[in-house]
Amino acid sequence: MVRRCTCCQKAAKNPTKVALKTWPSPTRVWQRVHVDFAGPLQGIYYLVVVDAFSKWPEMIEMSNISASKTVKALKSLFARYGLPQTIVSDNGTQFTSEQFKAMCDEGGIVHIKTAPYHPQSNGQAERFVDTLKRGIKKLKGEERPSEETLNVVLQAYRTTPNSSLNERTPAEVFLGRKLRTRLSLLVPQQESDEDPLAKARRERMEQQFDRKHGVVKRTFQVGDKVYAKQWKQPQFHWMKGTVMRRIGSVNYEVEIDGRIVRKHANQLRFRDGEGHKEGSDTLKVLLEALAAEDAYTRREVNVEPNPDRAIPNARLPTTSDQTSTSTVPPTQGPPPPTLRRSTRIRRPVQRFDPSPA
Hints:
This protein is an alpha+beta fold. Among the domains are: 32-181, 2-Layer Sandwich (Nucleotidyltransferase, domain 5); 225-270, SH3 type barrels. Helix content is 32%, strand content 19%. It is built from 9 helices and 10 strands. It has a 5-stranded mixed β-sheet with strand order 3-2-1-4-5, with helices on both faces. Strands 9-8-7-6-10 form a 5-stranded antiparallel β-sheet, with no helix packed on it. The radius of gyration is 42 Å and the shape is elongated. 15% of the residues are buried.
């Protein structure tokens, strides 16, 4: 009689639970994702997305949880990580809307909706929501969580070893590498050498660029007077400046009108007429060339006549010529011409080569 009584049946306890049916394990990252909303936390909702394979969580702050805002937030994640194969969600109006259905149809995504009021079916997302709430409460108490607080919780979760991942972190599984955190400073890692293939490719690119643009090596020293290319509405202008410090191989700190600005070597040129310090390469070359020319000129003036250096095809004077000219007083001829050497820098001819370097 009790089993057939309608009133007794309505007042009965919950039935015995059925056998647990777990989700099949995915085979790759971002194959199946679980989505849910956390909140409101001090009036703010958070869209939570968890990858079932790596347990990697994503969290987006949302002041409006309409269907259009939800679809927009998910598309931003899909642009970063690609389209998932399956999405698991509850039966919220955001997930049952036509816009959400259209997004899944366009991306070929299978949308699985869990039973209403049965959060256990979407336990992957529900579990992270619980972890998120407890983490925020530990950091901020009852205050509204800030963006910095959320970032701390996310980083801690992503870099914590997980037993279901064979003691690996979600970051290792999802990104294929360990995330660098402040704890990494306790054990500094030695920098590895550059890959030989990458180094050769980089050097070829530099040589090709230099050959195409006919680059000139130009260095500046501290104290050099330069013109710096400075933006001044509505265009660039050359402003007077002084090199204060060299940063790296091509960057310099230049003082312009009492302000220190950083400039690339391509944005600097020497001030003609004012020059720069004598230590610069260009002035050194000019001074050395002038000194060499002066020394050569003095040597030519003081040189003694050498009969071995007679002019070819010149007629040698005979005895009669010497006798006739002996009575003539010697006259001083014009001074020998000064030999001048060119200081032009000779460069090899660059011929056109259609084949790439």
